[in-house]
Design goal:
- By secondary structure, the protein is α+β, with helices and mostly antiparallel strands.
- Helices cover about 30% and strands about 30% of the residues.
- The chain contains 3 helices and 6 strands, in the order βααββββαβ.
- The strands form 2 sheets. It has a 4-stranded antiparallel β-sheet with strand order 2-5-1-6. Strands 3-4 form a two-stranded antiparallel ribbon.
- The model has no long low-confidence stretch (mean pLDDT about 90).
Length: about 130
């Protein structure tokens, strides 16, 4: 079964990764390299086990566009959005034997040094019948 592991971040996180000064210190090149190495190691393990389907990082929230309908017409708003602190920063799509295994994989993405950081993992819907109870 396939599971989507969703990783979250904020515009502040993207600013820190790109060295932009803000209310949190910019990441050093070493910290950024360590983060990328960690992600690469997890994904390489998943490639070797045959469980990785896809993984992608997303651009900063400032590059987001939100489309809503108002009076039947689409209205486009550029991001980031003050009302949304966290946004989807990236994902990994895995195909593994169980929800427990997907949860185990997802736990590897959480930074133990970042109190409160989290990821979500959800099964991919294969058929509309799965929506029922």
């Amino acid at each position: 079964m396939k599971y989507l592991i969703m990783l979250y971040g904020t515009q502040r996180d993207y600013d820190a990764m790109s060295g932009v000064p803000g209310d949190q210190p910019p990441m050093s090149p070493e910290q950024l390299a360590a983060m990328h190495a960690h992600m690469e190691a997890i994904h390489q393990e998943l490639v070797e086990s045959g469980e990785l389907v896809d993984a992608q990082g997303l651009t900063a929230p400032v590059h987001t566009r939100r489309i809503r309908l108002r009076d039947g017409a689409p209205v486009v708003t550029d991001g980031p959005y003050a009302e949304t602190q966290e946004v989807l920063a990236g994902y990994s799509l895995v195909d593994c034997v169980s929800f427990d295994r997907a949860t185990e994989i997802a736990a590897g993405f959480v930074n133990p040094d970042a109190e409160g950081e989290y990821v979500d993992v959800r099964p991919i819907l294969d058929a509309v019948e799965e929506l029922q109870g």
